[in-house]
Amino acid sequence: MAHDHDHADHDHDHSHPASELSPMDLRVRALESVLVEKGYVDPAALDALIETYETKVGPHNGARAVARAWVDPAFRARLLADATPALREIGIGGRGGEHMVVVANTPEEHNLVVCTLCSCYPWPVLGLPPVWYKSPPYRSRAVIEPRAVLAEFGVTLPADQRIRVWDSTAELRYMVLPMRPAGTDGLDEAALAALVTRDAMIGTGLARTPERNT
Amino acid sequence: MNGGQDLGGMHGFGPVAPEAEEPRFHASWEKRVFGLAMAMGFTGTWNLDASRAAREALPPGEYLTSSYYAIWLKALERQIQAHGLATADELASGTVSIPALPVKRVLRGEAVAPLFAGGFPSDRPVATPARFAPGARVRARRINPTGHTRLPRYVRGQVGTVEAVHGGFVFPDTNANLAGEAPQWLYTVRFAGRDLWGDAAEAGHAVSVNAFESYLEPVDPEPLHPEPVA
Predict the structure, then answer these.
(1) For the whole model, what pTM was predicted?
(2) A72: distance to nearest CA of chain B, Å?
(3) Which of B35, B64, B110 is the closest to A136 by Cβ?
(4) Euclidean distance between the first and final Cα of chain B, in Å?
(5) Is B13 within 8 Å of A137 when comparing Cβ atoms?
(6) B197, B230 in Cβ contact below 8 A?
(7) Which of A152, B94, B124, B193 lies most in the core, judged by the most C-beta atoms within 10 Å?
(8) Domains recognised in chain B with CATH numbers
């Protein structure tokens, strides 16, 4: 291929009509054609994989687990003690989350998850990782200057709250259990789950307060 | 390997660029690459660790200037060719010219939901007792393997504390070479920020990694008859 400007493709390549396929579209189309024709890949499996991870698996799963943990102390205890079976109780599990660990934020310690070596991420609770999670700025800096990274997400922690960074260097996948915001006593689980952002479960955010959410 | 993937502690990449409500994929080809990588992994011709190793083997300059799914694509093309599943000419033309090789299994559409909801666990029994118990001080070995490893450079040679013992898991360093799963005990080891980064460390900062037993050596003398780990 004469020129594949890979690093920029994600900025502009959304829905080319067939007449103006990008070099990357053409390259991947050729690869897919060969793999399907040789029988290594079932096109129906491709469609099912894409549909599953584009539309079905996402942070709404993790938010549901967080809300349950906020209202059910026994579930919270099980989630923190052994997250994988606890998540299975509420129908969450699978590829990229075979061995889950949930870490709870407290007034004393804030947790932040990164994968410096690749992009390990808890798929069943959060879906596929966002681009920034997989990119060099976050992967390089989260372990050496987490407060500076958090500031770029608009999060400033109290100076006396420790920061614990979890580098996902094996098949254990981490999810942060954010602190329940004040002023949420009367909310049911569904309303609570709506306060739980993806970033709050990575540790680059905090759960929303009801005021900001409405 | 000390490649472009081992980013912890590097400088110069600029600010993080969060996207609000970001889409899962930013181009249609990214979706196809994702699906193809998953489906080809399922054939059993290689494993997840081998795929990571293939991505890391891109020259650092190329790794660092390629988008995430471009890295996946380039590694997948290399793996396909290295295993003889297709030739460079076939991948360039999109036209098949040599017969397919047999593969162990093919992922069928109807199997995706149950298989991926079940997952592919990597915990394995280990016959020997765990060498380290929670609370033990350990040093991450100064290793510099040219092949795949999951011990990041920024902890090598540093002393930390074992926080958790997780059981046996597939050892990526051998598995990536298709040299066997050789499971080992896996630990969580906590390092103080100051021990890793010196005066550059932020206040109240600690980093944990998951480390396989052979990545670690004892700092304190070990008892002659270690207590079994509960």
Answers:
(1) 0.93
(2) 25
(3) B64
(4) 34
(5) yes
(6) no
(7) B193
(8) 28-118 (1.10.472.20), 137-218 (2.30.30.50)
